[in-house]
Design goal:
5 helices, two-stranded parallel ribbon, Arc Repressor Mutant, subunit A, single chain, alpha/beta, about 170 residues
């Protein structure tokens, strides 16, 4: 059964969606974390059950992340995506807090061919777990912010929060 709750953050109210899991701490495996206005954001469906208690561990980790105390999430995820997406998403999980990488470097890391770089970008864009699977840490080779489903301004805000970017003065 799908469960959901919301979480108020400095970036707006997140929608957390998960599935009951006997192995996950707190009893829920996270299937989606989406932000307001996000491209392809999850939408609550008929039959889903609200259950804030099931997400207590996830929301605790989000609070400590935004409080500047947590740098690495320890959350069970619902498996999903194609084998290629899973490779890309796994590589995202290994980008350290406070750092960035480029699309090309990420492609090299997973052994993607030059022709697969566009597919890599699409896989990053299809990441259903914004923030906890840190696709915001992938930037253009020239240092520009590119293609974040939650919006470029939020991507910049997250990178400033993590110390990977300096805040702008204007």
């Amino acid at each position: 059964m799908r469960l959901y709750t919301t979480f108020g953050s400095p970036l707006g109210e997140f929608l957390l969606v998960g599935e009951e899991s006997a192995t996950a701490r707190g009893g829920v495996a996270l299937a989606s974390l989406s932000m307001p206005g996000q491209r392809n954001a999850a939408v609550v469906q008929d039959g889903w059950r609200p259950d804030a208690c099931a997400f207590a561990e996830v929301t605790r980790q989000l609070r400590t992340y935004f409080g500047g105390e947590l740098t690495d999430f320890d959350i069970e995820f619902v498996p999903g995506g194609s084998p290629f997406q899973q490779r890309v998403w796994s590589a995202l999980e290994h980008i350290p807090y406070g750092t960035t990488t480029t699309y090309g470097a990420l492609a090299d890391r997973i052994g993607a061919e030059r022709a697969e770089v566009r597919a890599l970008g699409a896989a990053i864009g299809a990441n259903p777990l914004l923030l906890v699977r840190p696709c915001h840490r992938v930037i253009g080779a020239d240092g520009t912010m590119r293609g974040y489903a939650g919006g470029i301004e939020r991507k910049r805000d997250l990178l400033v929060h993590e110390g990977a970017l300096q805040p702008t003065l204007f």
